[in-house]
Write a structure and sequence with these properties.
The protein has 262 residues and is mainly alpha-helical. It is 71% helix and 0% strand. Helix 6 (151-180) packs parallel to helix 8 (202-226) and helix 7 (187-200) runs antiparallel to helix 8. The longest helix has 30 residues, at 151-180. The protein is globular and about 60 Å long.
Length: 262
């Protein structure tokens, strides 16, 4: 029974990953994610339903379009696989609880954010704004997500996290612009931390802000030294740190409190 349930959750996650691929491909271009239907990125021919089965179709077609034989990015397979595993991981952690439902929404958005930021350097507003609304809604419907018992107290905590998370990076961006005379913090990153604050509250948004640069440091050094990169995508590291906090926030908060008393 457990195996069947796990497989069911994984498949639904992979299906969600297929939709995320549409968002990742179209949102940075400002295109609709509803219409037209799925098409080959090269020949623009519609993809038949039997060629659009998550994971399996990519393997059967060997990563190529049936019509024009053009290669299809491995990213499509990766996102579907990652989404399936993320949903399954959250199910194994939380079972049928509010944390599972809010987690699959948050992690799905964070996965899309990571890929779009790495591929295009953009974090689409439709992803982060949708996440902000979801964070507020989940907090109001299930106050336990904010460690509250009353919906309006949880809503307040979520709203303060949203405002505070965005304000932290907005202030850092202003400071960086004043010091370096150029843009130092993207608007997408600001909205992303605001979204994480809506899910996790103000205190955790602050912790994410403090710790995410440490997570990003090895990658940033590699890109600067070996790739001579001028800009480094920061969103994926905010997303990763936020995901870690969602699952391990109790342990991380306890460790921070026992170490620093905050």
């Amino acid at each position: 029974m457990d195996t069947a349930v796990n497989l069911f959750i994984f498949i639904f996650g992979a299906v969600a990953g297929s939709f995320l691929n549409v968002c990742i491909h179209r949102l940075p271009q400002g295109r609709s994610i509803v219409s037209p239907g799925s098409r080959c990125p090269q020949c623009e021919k519609p993809i038949a339903w039997h060629d659009n089965i998550p994971l399996l179709s990519y393997l059967i077609l060997r990563g190529k379009c049936r019509e024009c034989s053009a290669g299809i990015s491995f990213r499509y397979f990766f996102v579907e696989l990652a989404a399936g595993f993320l949903w399954l991981m959250l199910w194994r952690f939380y079972g049928l609880t509010p944390f599972f439902f809010s987690g699959i929404v948050l992690f799905s958005i964070l996965l899309a954010v990571c890929v779009t930021d790495f591929e295009t350097g953009l974090i689409p507003d439709k992803l982060t704004f949708s996440g902000m609304i979801a964070g507020l809604a989940f907090s109001a419907l299930r106050p336990v997500l904010q460690k509250e018992t009353l919906w309006y107290a949880a809503m307040k905590a979520s709203f303060l996290g949203l405002l505070g998370g965005g304000a932290i990076l907005f202030a850092i961006g202003l400071l960086g612009r004043a010091i370096f005379k150029k843009e130092s913090m993207g608007g997408g990153d600001i909205k992303l931390l605001a979204m994480l604050g809506a899910f996790l509250g103000l205190k955790n948004a602050f912790y994410i802000f403090i710790l995410s640069p440490l997570v990003a440091l090895p990658f940033a050094l590699y890109m600067k030294i070996f790739r001579k990169a001028e800009t480094i995508p920061y969103g994926p590291f905010l997303a990763f740190t936020g995901a870690v906090f969602f699952i391990f926030r109790e342990k991380i908060e306890a460790l921070i409190f026992s170490t620093y008393g905050v």
